[in-house]
Amino acid sequence: METRLENGSPVCIRTIREEDRELMRVGIEKMSQRSRYLRFFSGARSAPEWVIERLVAADGHDHIAWGALDMAGDDKPAIGAVHAFRDEEDDDCAEFSVAVLDEYHGLGLGKLLTATILLDAREEAITEFEVNILADNAGAKDFTRSLGGRLVDSDRDVLEYVLDVETAIVRLKADCDPPGITEVFKAFA
User: Domain N-acetyltransferase: where (predicted)?
Assistant: First the structure.
């Protein structure tokens, strides 16, 4: 689906496929060390091959994955990704994560990707997301809480939130920010 970021830049949001290995690898390497640490709980510059394999092995049911491409760039680089891995013991629940390249922070891409995966998860009968966040990731905590996430467990370093899919969809739709989010909702209507 085609939509726009808050600055008007065109983006394409599409499902992640096996052949996206190199896009995924390059995207992870373009993230700052801090962003890689907050997303993967490791600041390593390169993701191990098993991580890349897991991220691109989406089947649309047990692993839902969407990526965003910058359509303004000549090479149409990958600029963000969102994943939901269904819990093996609880079919109604999935582990959720989102990552956006640093230069695209603050442009609404995280919300666009989150809306996309929430709507897709609803179609796949996933009703709840589990979100693991490092305790020092204030942005992710604020965003998760803004979607209705509630803290259910914590250790010193990692906080576990539960997010009701339908509540999060309602909150994102009511917010209508960024403006491009209406295209996401139209695509799933």
Answer: 11-166
Domain count along the chain: 1
Name residue, tokens 């896009």. 23
**CA-CA-CA-CA torsion for 164, 28, 24, 21, nearest 10 degrees?**
-130
Which structure tokens are listed for 46?
Answer: 């390169």
CA distance 127 to 129: 7
Residue range 127-178, pLDDT digits in tens: 999 999 999 999 999 999 999 999 999 988 999 999 999 999 999 999 877 7
Q: Is there a contact between 174 and 166 (Cβ–Cβ < 8 Å)? A: no
- CATH number, residue 116: 3.40.630.30
Q: Which of 146, 14, 18, 171 minimizes the C-alpha distance to 80?
A: 14
Residue 110 has pLDDT above 90, yes or no: yes
* pTM of this structure: 0.94
Q: Up-side HSE of residue 87: CA atoms within 13 Å toward CB? A: 16
Q: Which domain holds residue 47?
A: 2-187
